[in-house]
From TrEMBL:
Annotated protein name in UniProt: Class I SAM-dependent methyltransferase
Domain of life of the organism encoding this protein: Bacteria
Keyword Methyltransferase found: yes
GO BP, sorted A to Z: methylation
CDD domains (alphabetical): AdoMet_MTases
Domain called Methyltransferase type: residue spans: 42-134
Molecular functions per Gene Ontology: methyltransferase activity
InterPro entries with a match to the protein in the record: Methyltransf_11, SAM-dependent_MTases_sf, Thiol_S-MT
Keyword terms: Methyltransferase, Transferase
Pfam family membership, one: Methyltransf_11
C-alpha cells in the first residue's frame, strides 16, 4: 500500500503556533504519557514532534508517523534533536509501511482525527507484540451541555478547521473494543470548566494487548 499524506493548511498553521506555546500542564501530560516506555515505539500523528523531547532513554527507537505535509518537516527537525533515535515517516496510520511489531504504540491527540478510529485501533493492536502497550492522550466525549457542544461542533465547522478532529468520540470504549485491556486511566481538564470549548477534557491511559 502506498503511504498517503493529508493537507489541512489552516490547521497546520494553527498547530505550529499552538504546539510551540503549549502550557506546562500540557507538557506534563505528554511526559506522563511516555513515562516508563522501553524498546521500539510507534508514535501515531507526531505533529511537530512535541513528544520527542520527553521519551525516556530506555526507548531504543521511535517510528513516528505524520501525514500532514506542512507538519512532517517540523517533526523531522525535532527528531534530529531528540534524546532517542526517531524516524519520521510521512504517512497516515492506515497506509503505514509494513514493519516488525512494536513494544508500544503512542497516540497523542490523534484518534479524534482519523476517519475510522475502531479500524485504526484494531490495526494498532495488530502492530504490537503480545503484551505490548498502547499509551493514549486523547480528547474524549463528555456529558451534559459540553457533550451537546461537542456534537454540534463535530457536525459543523470543527472538523473542517481542526484537521478532521471529532471531539465527541467514546475513545476509551473503542480502545477496549479493539481488544485492548485498559490498565490505568484518568481524565484531566485542559481548560477551566466554564470555557465553552469542545476539547476541555482529555483521557490519559495505558492499555495492553492481552
Amino acid at each position: 500500500m502506498t503511504p498517503q499524506t493529508v493537507d489541512h493548511p489552516f490547521f497546520a498553521r494553527c498547530w505550529k503556533v499552538l504546539s510551540a506555546h503549549e502550557s506546562r500542564a500540557m507538557r506534563d501530560l505528554r511526559r506522563d504519557n511516555l513515562a516508563g516506555l522501553s524498546g521500539r515505539v510507534l508514535e501515531v500523528g507526531a505533529g511537530t514532534g512535541t513528544n520527542f523531547a520527553f521519551y525516556p532513554d530506555t526507548v531504543s527507537e521511535v517510528v513516528a508517523l505524520e501525514p500532514e505535509t506542512r507538519l512532517a518537516p517540523l517533526a523531522k527537525q525535532a527528531a534530529a534533536a531528540a534524546p532517542v533515535p526517531v524516524t519520521v515517516i510521512e504517512s497516515t496510520v492506515e497506509t503505514m509501511p509494513a514493519t516488525e511489531p512494536f513494544d508500544a504504540v503512542v497516540c497523542s491527540l490523534v484518534l479524534c482525527s482519523v476517519a475510522n478510529p475502531d479500524a485504526v485501533l484494531r490495526q494498532l493492536h495488530a502492530a504490537l507484540k503480545p503484551g505490548g502497550e498502547l499509551r493514549y492522550f486523547e480528547h474524549i466525549a463528555t456529558p451534559g451541555w459540553r457533550g451537546g457542544l461537542q456534537r454540534l461542533a463535530d457536525a459543523t465547522i470543527w472538523p473542517r478547521f481542526a484537521g478532521n478532529c471529532h471531539t465527541h468520540r467514546e475513545t476509551e470504549s473503542s480502545i477496549a473494543g479493539a481488544g485492548f485491556v485498559i490498565d490505568t486511566a484518568r481524565h484531566e481538564a485542559t481548560f477551566p470548566a466554564w470555557v465553552p470549548l469542545p476539547v476541555q477534557e482529555v483521557a490519559l491511559g495505558r492499555a495492553s494487548r492481552a
